[in-house]
Write a structure and sequence with these properties.
single chain, 719 residues
Length: 719
């Protein structure tokens, strides 16, 4: 127990030392009774949360996603007429889940354990089934009622350490519905959904005649009075569902209709619009009920923002959903590879050598910035291996500044803790995304020294608001026609023609967007750009930020910070900042066994000199300095001929001969930093394990960083 606590403390101290001030919490208590100091899982969780709070590290609660349900939840809703059918349907789900587990257990060395009273995960039916919804509400209430003995038995629901309450993560419910996942559920849930669909149509149209006029025609066997109007069209061709209790005449007609499948082209446009409106309203109303329940759970739950979901960004319905919640929550991921041998950095790619974006083809976190509502990046990272990955934190900090983001979460620093008794516990093989695993392991950065150093530098810029937001962002306004367009069942078309303007406009002027269902058409308030249509270069969206993709760099220049990332060899001379800082005489020392050395014609580096106390550098008493380039696992080897896609490593089977071993081989960066305002400050060189490997005092306003020392970062202090 003492060793576990020691390791937890060491990991927690490391999180604090890197400057993080919030964690996205995934670990939920198991609700078993425990006492302070008993060494149980719950005890260690409570201890850890208290230690984080001592370090002023807040929590985003994502631990309420496991609201499982089972047949015994039938009494959560008083509805005797449906009780037996519901219990039977859920029992069917449980049996299906049990068979899946048993099949997997035959192939696993460590079998999945379950107690025979299996409860299943939430599924798409939760949005319309009151019992499954009630099971989720009850689970969240139990979470909020959990007490922490290390905090005087404070309830989680009242704990000010939790600053975000999340209802679900990456549910992507509408996508699942339009692809027909609901048709795979037990018949009870299919029929209850169809009943709600018919009720929606009755309320909207009033009569079957009005419905037929709007849709031009109904299918044989469809009757609003009988409740047999089919939930069609979907994204792909789909067939009809015949209710068990349909009268013989209707059943006969539907049986004939069921011999065919139907696409969107088979129906009037309005029918598809009604399907999208029904799905969207069902989702939003469900989330509003869930949030109302959470808001009653305690002071923290009431006062902290509640996010409805964390999911992909390029969906109009997601924008509309977040408008009804208390914050937007969007993610993005990048890779750093290129598939074309003609590219000058092949097999790698730098996002600094093209107009700025933080996505692959369509914007994600560039969307859904709703006016006067917080915006959270719930996950982000660049997938390793990537030679030019240290630029990514600064590219993200620049966008976060332009758009005035509130939270950025990196995925993922750690899962569990390492053995703190090891001499160098973090000198290990970096996690790489390898095509044969199908899993994005390269998003795990616990053992990535150079990326973490860049994250720390960029984090200070972001946390302290050193770069001003765009002064007058353009606003995109979308009407009801776009929100319910059946074309949006497909990915990548959500915002229509205006979607092509979102990304370039965001990086030039900043942007906001929202849906207005009182109008039909879309509009833009403010200037808007199209990609590759007279885009300015250098690009300066604010007084502090400069992009130049011809020379391959990004600068963030403010009184409190000096940031440069890019190809120093292409810059054309010393990098000078308005605050008097100058970066010059940059070198990169490549170890002999590094897989992809940084050439003298590149001199790729990421540099940050940032105050950690929100003061201008000339007054700051606490400054962090980072100068890094890149690293690779020892023995890393690619088969470049197998690279076919720049989007995901998993799409390049056979491309990675060897992911390599640890510890990583680091290309060390060196340089001369002129900073007269730091004269007289003491400095400490820190290695990757937070050990002090050098000390001194800044003299003559010059800091010299050698490229042959294992420097993770430099901390400067002023008395």
């Amino acid at each position: 127990y003492a060793k576990k606590k020691k390791d937890v403390l060491a990991a927690t101290n490391r999180v604090e030392a890197f400057g993080f001030n919030l964690l996205r919490l995934w670990t939920a208590p198991d609700f078993e009774p425990f006492e302070k100091g008993d060494g149980s899982r719950n005890d260690l969780l409570a201890f850890w949360l208290a230690e984080l709070e001592k370090r002023n590290i807040k929590l985003w609660n994502s631990a309420m996603n496991e609201a499982r349900f089972g047949p015994d939840d039938v009494d959560l809703v008083d509805d005797p007429e449906t009780a037996d059918a519901w219990r039977e349907a859920v029992t069917e789900m449980v049996e299906t889940e049990r068979k899946k587990i048993e099949k997997k257990n035959k192939e696993r060395k460590n079998p999945i354990q379950y107690d025979g009273l299996l409860r299943v995960r939430p599924n798409v039916a939760r949005m319309w089934d009151p019992r499954i919804e009630a099971a989720g509400v009850a689970y969240r209430k139990a979470f909020a009622d959990w007490r922490n003995p290390y905090k005087d038995n404070l309830r989680l629901g009242d704990d000010p350490q939790i600053v975000v309450w999340e209802l679900s993560n990456e549910e992507r419910w509408i996508k699942k519905m339009v692809t027909g996942q609901w048709q795979k559920l037990p018949r009870f849930f299919q029929e209850s959904l169809l009943a709600k669909w018919n009720d929606y149509l009755k309320e909207k149209y009033g009569s079957e005649e009005n419905l037929a006029d709007a849709w031009l025609a109904l299918l044989p066997g469809e009757s609003l009075k009988a409740g047999t109007v089919q939930l069609l069209p979907l994204q792909k061709d789909a067939d009809v569902v015949t209710p068990n209790d349909a009268n013989p005449h209707v059943a006969k007609l539907l049986a004939q209709t069921a011999q065919s499948t139907f696409s969107r082209d088979d129906f009037h446009h309005q029918r598809g619009r009604d399907v999208m409106e029904f799905f969207t309203k069902t989702l939003v109303e469900h989330k509003k009920r869930e949030m109302a329940a959470v808001k009653s759970y305690g002071k923290s739950a009431r006062l902290s923002p509640c996010t409805f979901d964390a999911g992909e960004g390029y969906h109009m319905q997601s924008l509309w959903l977040h408008q009804h919640g208390e914050a937007s929550s969007v993610c993005t991921y990048m890779t750093g590879l290129h598939h074309d041998p003609m590219h000058k950095r092949f097999p790698w790619n730098s996002g600094l050598e093209e107009p700025p974006r933080l996505c692959w083809n369509v914007p994600w976190i560039e969307t859904q910035r709703i006016p006067n509502k917080p915006f959270f990046v719930y996950e982000t990272n660049i997938s390793n291996p990537a030679k030019y990955r240290t630029e990514y934190p600064y590219r993200l900090a620049a966008l976060a500044s332009i758009q005035d983001f509130d939270i950025v979460c990196w995925h993922v620093m750690t899962s569990g803790v390492v053995d703190s008794d090891e001499e160098k516990p973090y000198s290990r093989k970096m996690d790489y995304t390898v095509p044969w695993t199908g899993h994005p392991q390269g998003l795990h950065y616990r053992y990535d020294e150079v990326l973490q150093s860049a994250i720390q530098g960029a984090g200070e810029v972001f946390k302290n608001n050193y770069a001003a937001p765009a002064p007058d962002p353009t606003t995109f306004i979308f009407g009801k026609k776009s929100l319910y367009d059946p074309a949006t069942m497909n990915y990548g078309v959500a915002y229509g023609d205006l979607g092509h303007k979102i990304m370039p406009t965001t990086y030039r002027y900043g942007s906001r967007m929202y849906v207005d269902t009182t109008r039909d058409t879309d509009s833009v308030a403010g200037p808007a750009l199209l990609r590759s249509t007279y885009e300015p270069i250098p690009l300066k969206p604010t007084e502090n930020i400069e992009y130049d993709w011809q020379r391959g760099f990004l600068k963030i220049d403010a009184p409190e910070s000096a940031v440069y990332t890019g190809f120093f060899a292409d810059y054309g001379g010393p990098v000078q900042f308005e605050n008097g800082v100058v970066l010059d005489r940059v070198t990169v020392n490549n170890p002999e066994d590094i897989a992809y050395p940084v050439g003298r014609d590149e001199l790729y580096v990421s540099f940050a000199l940032v105050a950690r106390d929100s003061l201008p550098l000339e007054k700051s008493k606490d400054v962090f300095l980072s100068l890094v380039s890149t690293s690779f696992n020892k023995g890393f080897e690619l088969n470049e001929s197998k690279l076919k896609s720049e989007y995901l490593w998993q799409r390049n089977p056979g491309s990675m001969k060897n992911p390599g071993q640890g510890p990583a081989v680091v290309a060390r960066a060196g340089g001369h930093i002129k900073a007269p305002m730091l004269n007289g400050m003491t400095y400490t060189w820190l290695d990757w394990h937070r050990n002090e490997i050098g000390t001194g005092t800044v003299k003559r306003g010059m800091i010299v960083i050698p490229d042959d020392e294992e420097i993770y970062g430099i901390v400067l202090k002023r008395k």
